[in-house]
Design brief:
The structure holds 2 protein chains of 2 kinds.
Chain A (H helix, E strand, L loop, with lengths): L23 H10 L4 E5 L21 E5 L3 E10 L7 E8 L4 E6 L12 E7 L6 E6 L3
Antiparallel strand pairs in A: 1-2, 3-4, 3-6, 4-5, 6-7
Chain B lengths: L2 H4 L5 E8 L11 H16 L8 E4 L7 H9 L5 E3 L7 H14 L5 E8 L1 H5 L23 H15 L3 H15 L13 H6 L2 E3 L2 E2 L9 E9 H4 L7 E10 L15 H12 L8 E4 L4 H10 L8 H5 L17 H4 L7 H13 L12 E8 L4 E8 L5
Parallel strand pairs in B: 2-3, 2-4, 9-10
Antiparallel strand pairs in B: 1-7, 1-8, 4-7, 5-6, 8-11, 10-11
Helix pairs in contact in B: 2-3, 7-11
Classes of the chains: A mainly beta, B alpha/beta.
């Protein structure tokens, strides 16, 4: 399981370190844990996909390379959940500009203010059980 | 659709249906006991002996190797078994699988059965299997399955102007049908305001937009049309059935406003040689209020996006223009985890005229539509009485 650079150095981990890796979940998580939000991109049809797989779900090719996501996207849908003893939070589907849709949370704003069509950008949040890609409103 | 499959139209029929005890059966009955109850009652309904069952179609989250466990419990030795697991729609899919098996003479009398004690034994939804693969959803705290359907509802409201009141109409209509069904679980008064003011589970869906959590089992017996005509009750002929699934997790669904019912409805109608206007009564898997809107649209009963106005003003309630979910549905009648088999049971009873005060006037064609997972798997079947074959 790749969790750090295999050469033992502490230099910055990048997608280039995993070009030939075929452990999709582990690489995705390792990159996130090192602050890099990346998706597999098919070298045959050119489409990015998520969640990571060993083959392209569009064309079936196994020729894939990791590509860092720009992290920009649009809220496709949102649902607010209000736990009894915690702040409400927004569970969203985000359409990344690279194509794939993912489930996440929009943070740093009231859940009820999250709107469909809102532009968002990714923010990697480190958690005990592994880093995750969350989103915040892109006001730019 | 293939000509070979189209030739199967009306070659098989449902000849026996029954529920087990429903609602909250208590701690002393197991899911297999409910399968036993329902099977004994369905055999009695059909006038068949248990020894005649030679095909078994069974799926459950409550026991491993479902057909093997059910066959042992029932004391039968099937020569054909099917444990396809595509969620709550599975049981509607079994109608198609049983039709294929019976036509190939791989079995003669097919038992489709389900049992769950999720209310008494578990107190909540019991899902099939322990996930051993990574989830790309749970880190973000969705309340599944509700949030998946809530995301579809929110998008439907955004794109088409559908209102929460229109969604609530689905739950109110289901309740009005349930009030006419003596074995329905929730039969109390329910208004649109009650639905809107109930506890919000995952916006825009409140607890009253969500299906019940009950116990329950069911059994459906299918055999050849020829054999069916020699039995006790009027056969409900299988005129066409179609299955499809396009995704599993909701974030993988290409368009949350178009389900695979758009494919299965078209294929089932083509197989049956029918159109939506030919259907007299519908049973649509209403795990959540949004389902009914999506399926009415995808199956061709109204245009895409017009499901909200279509169900307004009691249109699908008793006395409305299109009878939908006449049992009270998953929203008010029963929902023991997977509801598919109960859709078939109610459709057959309507075609036979067995439904008492909730009986639809003189129906000849019934549509059954099963949903599974997170709007994932869709199965449509058309059933008809003797006049349709």
């Amino acid at each position: 399981m790749p969790a750090a650079r295999r050469d033992g150095s502490d230099s910055v981990l990048t997608v280039a370190d995993y070009t030939a890796e075929v452990h999709p979940e582990a690489v995705y998580q390792a990159l996130l844990d090192h602050g890099v939000f990346a998706l597999p991109r098919c070298e045959r049809c050119g489409r990015a996909h998520y969640p990571p797989r060993v083959l392209c779900p569009y064309c079936g090719s196994t020729s894939l390379a990791w590509q860092q996501s720009a992290g920009h996207g649009t809220v496709y849908s949102t649902s607010t959940i209000s736990p009894r003893n915690a702040e409400p939070y927004a569970v969203v589907l985000v359409d990344l500009d690279e194509g794939p849709r993912l489930m996440s949370n929009v943070v740093a704003m009231p859940a009820a203010d999250v709107r469909i069509g809102m532009r968002v950008r990714a923010r990697i949040v480190q958690r005990e059980d592994g880093a995750v890609a969350m989103f915040e409103e892109d006001r730019a | 659709v293939s000509a070979d499959e189209a030739a199967l139209r009306g070659t098989t029929a449902v000849v026996g249906v029954a529920e087990s005890d429903l609602g909250e059966v208590g701690p002393h009955l197991s899911s297999l006991d409910l399968i036993g109850q329902a099977t004994a009652r369905a055999l009695d309904d059909a006038g068949l002996d248990k020894s005649e069952i030679d095909g078994l179609f069974c799926h459950s989250a409550f026991f491993q190797l479902p057909p093997v466990a059910a066959a042992e419990y029932l004391g039968i030795r099937p020569r054909y078994s099917d444990s396809t697991a595509i969620g709550g729609s599975t049981f509607v899919g079994y109608l198609r699988h049983a039709t294929a098996a019976i036509n190939a003479r791989m079995c003669d009398v097919a038992l489709i059965t389900y049992g769950s004690t999720q209310r008494s034994a578990a107190g909540g939804l019991v899902s099939s299997g322990t996930p051993l693969t990574k989830s790309y959803e749970t880190p973000f705290g969705p309340r599944l399955p509700v949030t998946a359907y809530a995301l579809a509802a929110a998008r439907h409201m955004h794109e088409f102007g559908t209102t929460r009141e229109q969604l609530a109409e689905v739950a109110v209509a289901a309740r009005k049908w349930a009030q006419l069904n003596p074995v329905a679980f929730d039969r109390g008064e329910l208004t649109t305001d009650d639905v809107l003011s109930s506890r919000m589970v995952s916006s825009p869906l409140t607890v009253r937009d969500c299906c019940l959590v009950t116990d329950g089992g069911g059994a459906v017996i299918v055999t050849s049309a020829e054999r069916a005509r020699s039995l006790r009750r009027p056969p409900a002929f299988i005129l066409g059935a179609a299955e499809a699934h396009w995704h599993k997790d909701i974030f993988q669904m290409p368009d949350l406003l178009v389900t695979a019912a758009a494919e299965t409805g078209a294929r089932a109608f083509e197989l049956a040689g029918l159109v939506p206007a030919d259907v007299h009564v519908l049973q649509l898997y209403d795990a959540f209020s949004i389902n009914t809107l999506l399926f009415l649209e995808d199956l061709g009963f109204c245009k895409k996006g017009e499901g909200g106005p279509f169900v307004a003003d009691g249109a699908i309630a008793p006395g409305g223009r299109l009878p939908v979910n006449t049992s009270g549905g998953g929203l008010s009648y029963c929902h023991p985890g997977m509801f598919g088999i109960f859709l078939i049971i109610e459709a057959v009873r309507q075609l036979r005229g067995d439904c008492g005060t909730r009986q639809v006037a003189d129906p000849h064609v019934a549509l059954v539509h099963g949903n599974g997972g997170m709007l994932s798997s869709q199965v449509t079947a058309l059933l008809g009485d003797e006049s349709t074959v």
